[in-house]
Design brief:
Two copies of one chain form a homodimer. Chain A is of the alpha+beta class. The first copy, chain A, is built from three helices and five strands; from the N terminus they run βαβαβββα. The first copy, chain A, is 35% helix and 27% strand. Chain A has a four-stranded mixed beta sheet with strand order 1-2-4-3, with helices on one face. Chain A is globular. The interface between A and B is large, with 38 and 38 residues. β5 of chain A pairs parallel with β1 of chain B.
Chain lengths: 96, 96
């Protein structure tokens, strides 16, 4: 049986919440960050802090929606399955 | 060392893409669904289909942002860390 895995969802309020995201990444847990209710200035600083964290931990940050990001530690592989849409946006002549 | 884990990100275009979400859930992989570019009617049907899938597999669906959902199979535990905000929205007299 596969081991139990954890995904954390965080809606940061202030820059201080960045630490909570970083702690979960250090524990090798993926984190979904929802900035919909975050002050724009704080969101920008959190993104910078978490970019530093994921860089240090060899992880990655992916935008998964408007104001929603997925931060993945190095043990988590993130796969986009809808490459077609992006290709068709860049190369409309390939559009079905 | 922890096993490599996968998180799938899908931006569905049509109802048929629901099957792709379901296949990943059956393979015990969490899926982030971004409905920002999905027709509203198709999104509704996909949500219903995936609700059926997660119910069958004892998993869960969580809204993680406007038009963004996280679908987790039963081996994935989803944790919200920001309960305070919800409480303060419902009970504003508790607000800091």
């Amino acid at each position: 049986m596969a081991a139990q895995m954890k995904v954390i969802i965080i809606e940061p309020k202030t820059f201080d919440d960045a630490q909570q995201v970083a702690n979960n990444l250090r524990e090798r847990k993926p984190v979904v960050i929802n900035f919909e209710h975050t002050d724009a200035e704080a969101a920008k600083r959190i993104i910078d802090f978490i970019s530093g964290t994921t860089y240090a931990l060899n992880g990655e940050i992916k935008k998964v929606g408007h104001n929603v990001f997925l931060c993945a530690p190095s043990n988590v592989n993130v796969t986009y399955t809808e490459e077609e849409r992006k290709v068709s946006a860049e190369m409309p002549w390939l559009k079905k």
